[in-house]
Amino acid sequence: MPLTQATEPLNTPLTVAQAMQHARQQGLDRLDAQLLLCDAVQQSHAWLLAHGGDVLPPAQQTRFLSGLARRTTGEPLAYILGDKAFFGLTLAVSPDVLIPRPDTETLVEWALELIPEQVITTVLDLGTGSGAIALAIQHQRPRAQVTAVDASEAALRVAQANAQQLQLPVTFRHGNWLAPVAGERFDLIVSNPPYIAEGDPHMAALGFEPKQALTAGADGLDDLRQIIAAAPEHLSPGGWLLLEHGYDQPVAVAQLLTERGFSNVSTRFDLGGQPRCTGGQRPT
Fold it and tell me: Which range is least confidently modeled, 24-33, 140-149, 269-278?
């Protein structure tokens, strides 16, 4: 159902059930409405069901209607609520970072296969955004030494706050791709870089997210090319480079890796069955 523009703020007090009904009348699906209301009243879904006749206090009603108005403009729910679940972690998000997506968990799962639990392994996450990949790896592999890079200072502030909240010792660097780690080598490099082509019609649905974290040239491969070209000098012998990409880019990414001398090049598929990540190993 298409969303409609929210009406003027209501002056009459709403019960919990009436608030849900109002959200549905504005075009929200039931789950979004429930999540906005749970956030406003700081209670669980079960509480909503048991308290449908309760009248919302003014502050809670105002918070709910504000979130409703934002959602009806198409703003992602994660930005309204301020957080997003990823690989078992709750991460703060803001419009300075991409919203972590379940597809990216494919990259984390592959990375974890390559990181022994009891061995100190150096890992680099390029374009960390909210810190989702780096923090998920660090959480699952406490002995890993994880470094995360981003060109956006605002994004790094979000990632650093997440690391502090989760008490995970990721090291953060500011700069473009591999420039901040000049002269350093890692056992594993991972990245979910921008990979959408300029002018792609899908961008219309992503207008609230930072464009610089989404698009990469006419074919969407500009940043992937840059990372692949520079990565061998920053990998230990036998080290791996794992990259997330678009569903229509696995062949191109695999070719770029092969041309740069990577071996054991292969592709992993996301939960929807789409080719999502391609990686290769630097020869020993």
Answer: 24-33
